[in-house]
Specification:
It is built from 19 helices and eight strands. By secondary structure, the protein is mainly alpha-helical. The chain has two domains: about 400 residues, no CATH class; about 100 residues. The strands form two sheets. Strands 4-5-3-6-8-7 form a six-stranded mixed β-sheet. About 45% of the residues are buried.
Length: about 525
């Protein structure tokens, strides 16, 4: 057994097997339901895979319109490829890109941890992998399909590419770093500012430590510019109110109706800094991102993160002062910039939330692992071994409690709404109901995902999640009295709609929904289709 524990291939295989179980087990069921961005991305990806346009009829937009305020493209592109390969779309397929980029984060995070800590601690890469697997944030973020969460994984791959390029000094390694930088920009718009500042300061650092070679800079810049220029063009189009552009009939540089440049600001920097730190180290107000019971990386990680960040900062300062390269500078710089940019996200009193801060989590995890090793390095002999065992036991206990909560205690809770597919099939199967106005208590994208019509069948709203799809209406105002006696009202089972029943409508439970029928319908004559 001791021989196996020294075998890096065995340890890597163990991490992979644990990853596959934690991230893929019941992925189509946990968390319950589908986030509104998941169904919007899924329907867009299905349209792109089958019709070459998204629901707004834009061919492969580099920044999809989504509900009017824009959405990063990387998640949708990966999902489109999966749908094209499998010929199907379902909850498992929708969430698979999140799991894939979680694997990218763990793998490249472990490789970077080895670069930063491996000389003194050869198994630091394995410690990082275990830390990733046991901490709540990484499991929760990789188990639902929020587009912006891909920044954590892609930026980690980029940082490893930068660390590798600086160490090897080869043009092809810098070219790979440039490619990774360009792709990172397609994961989350917040990365634009982080990346620009990072590249500027990284160049200054490389010059300081005498590693700057202009041929390497050009090798990185060329693929970065080629990949990133469409996103720059989108910003210009929307900043200067220019018309939308379609390149070669295949790629769209869209106009965003609710362009979100105004989300950045410094109206209350101290509050934003507190929120950024709280969302990173503790929890936010969104149940899909984090939990107050366990925090993002458990309360016991906070002192380790702080100790590790100080240790990395000390190494970075020494590297700049001595002009001797230390690869710890790059993840430290990225984390600091992710925090600084997060502070500028001051759209409301609770921002930035945890998913908005997701670009910082590799640096935070690396800081925690560095902090653990730093504490252990202060100790010697049996005291060190006892402390290592105590830390490992504490994380194992925390992990056991978290996974029991996530997979067992919370497994029955529907975190998101689910498409009302059975209710729609029930209405369409009955001539007495088909064609009537149907008012549904969901965003219109749930209907589109449930029925998968051609994007040319309906004209969806440019802005917002509400609107009409034929005789199906998705407006909150429809559920305010007075009610149309000829219409059908469909709500989820969690929706308190007793007032509709009191207005004379007949409630029928169909699948995960309650269908309120007009009083003139004889419910006993209706046909109930077989479940799909």
């Amino acid at each position: 057994m001791k021989t196996l524990l020294r075998d890096n291939r065995f340890l890597a295989a163990a991490l992979l097997l644990l990853f596959l179980f934690i991230h893929l087990y019941a992925l189509d069921e946990l968390p319950g339901g589908l986030n509104t961005d998941e169904v919007g991305t899924a329907y867009d990806a299905w349209c792109l895979a089958n019709h070459g346009v998204d629901r707004h009829r834009d061919p492969f937009p580099v920044y999809p319109i989504n509900y009017g305020d824009g959405q990063s493209a990387m998640y949708g592109w990966v999902l489109t490829a999966l749908i094209a390969l499998t010929g199907t779309v379902n909850t498992f397929i929708i969430r698979l890109p999140a799991a894939l980029f979680g694997l990218i984060l763990m793998a490249f995070g472990a490789l970077t941890a080895h670069e930063v800590l491996g000389e003194k601690h050869p198994k630091a890469w394995f410690a990082f992998g275990l830390f990733y697997l046991v901490c709540p944030y990484f499991t929760m973020a990789a188990r639902f399909g929020l587009d912006c969460n891909l920044l954590a994984g892609m930026s980690t791959a980029f940082l490893y590419a930068v660390v590798r390029a600086a160490r090897r000094g080869r043009m092809r390694d810098y070219a790979l770093a440039g490619i990774a930088a360009g792709l990172t920009l397609y994961t989350y718009a917040v990365s634009y500012m982080i990346m620009a500042l990072f590249l500027l300061l990284a160049l200054a650092y490389l010059a300081r430590v005498r590693l700057l070679r202009w041929k390497n800079v050009l090798a990185a810049a060329l693929p970065l510019v080629l990949i990133a220029w469409p996103l720059v063009a989108v910003q210009v189009i929307n900043l200067f109110d220019l018309p939308e552009v379609t390149l070669f009939g295949k790629i769209t540089l869209p106009r965003i109706p609710d362009y979100r440049a105004g989300e950045f600001g410094l109206s209350n920097p101290l509050r934003s800094l507190f929120n950024a730190l709280k969302s990173t180290l503790m929890y936010d107000d969104r149940a899909a991102n984090s939990t107050p019971q366990f925090w993002t990386m458990y309360p016991i990680s906070v002192p380790f993160v702080l100790i590790g960040a100080i240790a990395l900062l000390s190494r970075g300062i020494r590297a700049v002062q001595s002009r001797a390269h230390d690869c710890a500078f790059f993840p430290l710089l990225w984390g600091a910039l992710a925090l600084a940019v997060g502070v500028t996200l001051s759209g409301d009193a609770l921002q930035p939330n945890t998913n908005q801060m997701n670009g910082i989590f590799f640096a935070a995890a690396l800081s925690a692992v560095t902090g653990i090793y730093t504490v252990l390095d202060w100790l010697r002999g049996n005291v060190r071994r006892a402390a290592a065992a105590a830390i490992a036991t504490a994380y194992a206990a925390c992990g056991g409690l978290f996974f029991h909560w996530y997979f067992i205690e919370r497994s029955q809770d529907a975190l998101f709404e689910a498409p009302m597919s059975e209710a729609i099939a029930f209405i369409e199967a009955n001539d007495e109901l088909a064609g009537r106005t149907v008012c549904m208590s969901q965003h219109y994208t749930y209907y589109l995902y449930a029925t998968l019509p051609s994007p040319y069948d309906y004209s969806v709203p440019e802005s917002g999640p509400f609107g009409d799809c034929g005789n199906y209406h998705f407006e909150p105002s429809d559920f305010v009295p007075p009610y149309d006696p000829e219409s059908i009202y469909v709500v989820s089972r969690q929706y308190d709609a007793h007032i509709i029943e009191e207005a004379g409508f007949q409630p029928l439970q169909v699948g995960n929904a309650i269908v309120y029928l007009p009083a003139d319908i004889d419910a006993n004559t209706l046909v109930y289709p077989e479940p799909a």
